[in-house]
Structure formats: structure tokens, C-alpha cells
Amino acid sequence: MDRPVVLLINPHVPDAMGEPLMENLAIGSLAAYLQHHGISVDLADFAIDKLPIGTLPSHVKLDDYRVAGITIMARSCVNAAMAVAHTIKLKNPEIHLVSGGKFPTSNPDTFLFPGSPFDSVIRHDGEGPLLELVQRLLRGEDWSSIPNLSKAQGNGSRHNPLDFQYIQSDLDRLPMVDRRFLPLFLDRNAPTTVSASRGCIYSCEFCVVAAESKSLWGKPQWRGRSAGSIANELEYLTRNFNISEIWFVDDLFLGPMPRGKKRIHELCNEIHRRNLKLGFSFEERSDSVIKNKELFRELKRAGLRRVFLGLESGDIKTLKRYKKGNRPEQHLEAIDFLQQIGVEVSTGFILFDPFKSMETLKEEICFLRKLAHRRVFFPPVFNSALQLMREVPIFDKVVAAGLLMTDGEHLEYDYNDQRVKCIAKALKWLFMVRNGTLFFTLKWIIGNEWRKSGAFPGSPVSRAHSHLIRELAAFYKTFALDTSEQIIEMICEWPNNNPQLIGTLDLKPLLPGVDIFSREIIFLTNVIRLAYNLEQRNEYSPVAAN
Ligand code: B12
Ligand code: SF4
Asked: Who wins on pLDDT, 194 or 465?
């Protein structure tokens, strides 16, 4: 193949809560598609190089490229993407800079303002439109009319209409993801990811996946690869890279029933038939688990190790408001069933949102205690507020209620009930701001708990350490829930609508307890860390010590 004319970049910056390192499937999928059509591509993944924001890896030779594409997953990646885009344009103003991904798809104007380094944004699936863009630029043709593309125009922007020809209706026709960086990620104990479907058939009020489906088709839609196509990729990964753990990144792995059942049944058969020895994890809903217990038993026999359940709430009124279509008892039934058949569970949870009431907050805390008791991962109470996004239905409700505080680059919201806001702020202050050492200690625990007990395979650490970390997490989570209840007790008699009262909350009665807890948790974590480090150097094995 000729010299690369396209550079694709993942400017990803790991976030504060110890998120794992892993391959970026978007640039891998786009690269594979372009290469399949004879266009040579270079890749740069900043997650590997860990370079300062705005700098480029040394192998990137900007003079060579005609097009540079930057993938942008979420709002939190925008600054890093902008910085690298400016660097590229400064060094080579001739390069056409295009962005794509979940965030630009629904916020193209963020990248198309006068003076922006970006020339265009491709919305939704990138494979088809990016190929068209590169081909037209190489032929010196006009590119501005490419469907699904947005560009700056005058002081504003122009969004070309959607053309469904460019939305991949048959995912089996896409070439296999370019895995050139996989060995580097494996060296760093990163999990291996596979995408087996796109979209979701549900319409949860806070979810961008549902919002994207709706903006594309007017209703939720799910596209799945066939069992054979998924099995081919699994076989390729196990045979070529010796992979034994896979994390499926799909939003709804099983897909719509009964079609989904048939596909998963076929996939399990393929895994057995090809003798693929691997463990895997995926994301699903509680109702899918309890409606398909036999299928989950079959999945377990085929290698299912972990399921990530997007619970979001343990309060029936909140679940209805979110249009989640699940009940709290279904959540618990799904967890109990999965644990019973030997599948690990981790969960997603939104404890705070602008419309939460004190009553529902108490319900949530009660429910979270049940999760802590079951040793199931859930996000820390001081960091589980709704991440508001402009494209989701709940955003309009926040605006209509006059609760949107800052628009623009950051979306911040106020709370209907000022007491709930007070609790959210107090928890953040106690666990994140007041005591930095405690925060970093918790970050380590959460990172490891998240990786081991839940979504992320690939850890070299023994089950014994995983068990200790889980117990430690249950200890701190129970303490944080106790603290939340103490704050609720202190302020439940306050009026719900007086923002001035927030500044008057006296947290002093809680501080001795938090200080003792801090010392204990830091001490215990250091002991586990020491054992963990010794184990990594093969100097101590907790399994042998047992
Ligand atoms: C895996 C994943 C992660 C991994 C990322 C690993 C990595 N290196 O890529 C981890 C766990 C680290 C992660 C982190 C976060 N994530 Co995330 N993540 C996902 C997930 C589950 C899958 C992404 C994926 O691989 N998809 C498969 C690829 C093939 O699809 P794709 O990325 O959409 O790419 C296609 C198109 O978008 C487009 N495209 C993409 N890039 C480009 C670039 C160009 C140039 C072009 C032309 C086209 C294009 O073409 C691609 C092929 O068709 C998605 C959910 C989802 N359904 O996408 C959430 C998702 C993207 N994450 C999300 C969020 C919010 C986050 C976090 C902020 C979470 C947090 N901590 O609070 C962080 C942000 C990271 C950061 N530090 O800033 C949201 C984004 C919402 C939004 N619009 O802002 C999503 C949609 C989840 C959700 N349902 O809310 N995430
Ligand atoms: S089920 Fe999950 S992916 Fe689907 S709309 Fe709800 S939150 Fe989004």
C-alpha cells in the first residue's frame, strides 16, 4: 500500500476515577474500512503514549497526510481534541481536519466556529462518509456536499442532510477492526474489546444512545452482527493474540427478542464448535436477564464471566421517570440470579439528578445498601450524579424547570430540592475535596474494584486480592451510605427551596467519624497495595499464604 495519507487520532484522556486503558475501536474500525478501500492510514492513540495534551507522538509526520480525523467520545475529551487539532493545523494548515464520534454527532457546532481548526464533522457512522471525504479530497473534488457531514459556513455552520446509504445497515459487511495497537495495550494489561452491535431499542430519558437512534430513525433502533461474524473476530483474536478475555462494548448485547435469542444461541454454539477458550463480559438490562435465564446459563457455559447492569436507580418512581422500563425488584432478581450461576455483576447508578426528592434519595440509599451487601460494584455516592447532555430528553425538562445553570462548554444544573443539592455537595466535599489522600486512596480502590469485580477483564491480580479489594470497597461504601443518611437526618426538616441554607450546613459533627474512617481506609489500602506489589513481583502469593 502507498504511504499513509490519513491520520486517525484518539486524544482520549483517562478520567479521574481510574478508568481503564483500552483500545479505541472507532479509529480501528475507520482505519480498517479505509484500508479495505485501498487507502493507507496511520493511527495515533494518546492513551498509549500518555503525551502532554496538544503534543503528537514522534512517529506522526504531519507533512505526509491529506486528512486527519479525531475521534471524540464525550464532552470531557473536547479540550484534548481541540489542543491537538490546533497543533496539527499550526504545523500543516493544508491538512483537512475532521472530527467524529458520539459527542460531535450531536454537538457538531462545538467544532465549527470561525477560527476553529476543524474543517468538518462527520455525524453518526463514520466509515462511509470518511471514505467519500478522503477520496474526494485526493481527487481534488468538492467535498462540501457529502451527506451526514457538517461544515462551517459564514459565521455559522451547515449540516448536510442524512443519507441512510452511509449508515451501515449490515455490520457484517464491515472489515475486521484494525488491531495494530492491541499488543501494546495487552502489554499494559488492558482488556480486549469487541463491538457486536450498534444502538439500542429502549428510550431511557438520560441516554445518548437512545437520543442518537431517535435523531437518526425517529425511533430506537438496534443493528447486530451475525453470530458467525462475531465468532470470526473472537477466533481471530484468540488465535493471533492469545486473548482469553473479551469485553463487548455494546449498549445492548442481546438485542431485541426473539431475534436476539436465536443469534446468541448461535454464538454460543460457534464458540463451542470452534473450541474458543475465552471469558467474556457485556452490558445488559435487568429485565433481559430475568426473562432469559436459560440463555444466560448457556452464555455462562460458553464463557460469560461478568455482566454490567445499567440499573440507574433502585426507586420505582425514579425508574419510571427515567423511562427505564425496569423495577427495583427486577434489578435484585437479576443480580441474585447472575451471582447464583457464578457470573460476576457490576452496576451503573445515578444517585443524584435535578429532580430527585428527599424521599427517593432515602429509597436509593436503602437499595444501595442491598448492593453493598451483595458485594456488587456501584459507583461511589460522591461521584454518581447524572451527567447531563444536551441531546437527551431530560435536558429539555431541566431547561423547562429553569434548572440549567451553565450552558455552553459545561452543562451544570441546579436541583429542584435544595436539600438534595446540599447532600450531593456535602458528600463531594467530605470524600473528594476535604481529604485528598482519602480521595486518591478511594480512587485506587474503585479503579481496582471496577476492573476486577465487574466490567474489565485482563487483570493479572489473584482472586484473593480481588476479594480483599471488594471487602474494602464494601467497607467504604457502607460508611459513605451511613454518612449520606446522617446528612439527610441533619437537614430533612429544612424547607426544600431555600438555597441560602446550603451554606449553613455544619458538617463538624461528622468530621471525627470521617477522620477515623480516613485513617483506617488508608492504612488498610496500603497493606493491600503492599501485598499486591509483592505479588506482582512474585514475592508473595496470598493464595499460597492461605
Ligand atoms: C468503550 C467506551 C468507553 C471506554 C473508552 C475506551 C477507548 N479507548 O475507546 C472508557 C471506559 C474508557 C470510556 C470512558 C468514558 N466514556 Co465511554 N463509552 C464506551 C462505549 C461503551 C463504546 C465505545 C465504542 O468503542 N464504540 C464502538 C465504535 C466503533 O463506535 P463509535 O465510537 O461510536 O464510532 C463510530 C462513530 O461514532 C464514528 N466516529 C467515531 N470517531 C470518529 C472519528 C472520525 C474522524 C469520524 C469521521 C467518525 C468517527 O465512526 C465510528 C464507526 O462508525 C460507548 C457506548 C457506545 N455505544 O458507543 C460509551 C460512550 C461513548 N462513553 C460515554 C461517556 C460519557 C464516557 C465518559 C465521560 C464516562 C465517565 N467517566 O463519566 C468517559 C470519557 C472518557 C474521558 N476520559 O474523557 C458516552 C458518551 C456520551 C456523549 N455523547 O458524550 C457513551 C456513548 C456511553 C453512554 N451511553 O452514555 N468509554
Ligand atoms: S437500555 Fe441502556 S443503552 Fe438502551 S436506552 Fe436505556 S440506558 Fe440507553
From this structure: 194
Q: Name the DSSP class of 386.
A: -
The CATH number covering residue 25 comes to 3.40.50.280
Question: How many angstroms separate the CA atoms of 44 and 122, rounded?
Answer: 19
CATH of the domain at 245: 3.20.20.70
Whole-number Å distance, alpha carbon 268 to ligand 2 midpoint, is 24
Q: What is the pLDDT of residues 355-399, one digit of tens each?
A: 999 999 999 999 999 999 999 989 999 989 999 999 899 999 999
Q: Whose CA is nearest to atom 1 of ligand 2?
A: 202
Q: If you measure from the C-alpha of residue 535 to the centroid of ligand 2, how many angstroms do you get, rounded to a whole number?
A: 39
In ligand 1, the atom with minimum distance to the C-alpha of 455 is: 11
Burial of residue 428 (CB within 10 Å: 0-12, 13-18, 19+) is middle
Which of 318, 314, 313, 251 minimizes the C-alpha distance to 288? 251
504 or 323, greater pLDDT: 323
Q: State in Å: Cα 194 to ligand 2 middle.
A: 18
How far, in Å, CA of 298 to CA of 301, rounded?
Answer: 5
The closest residue, in CA terms, to atom 20 on ligand 1 is 249
Nearest CA to ligand 1 atom 67: 74
Number of domains in the chain: 2
**Residues in the ligand 2 pocket, defined by CB under 6 Å:** 200, 202-204, 207, 209-210, 251-252, 285, 310
Ligand nearest to the Cα of 45, by number = 1
Q: C-alpha grid cell for residue 174?
A: 464491515
Domain containing 295 equals: 191-349
Alpha helix (H) residue ranges in 388-455: 393-400, 418-428, 436-453
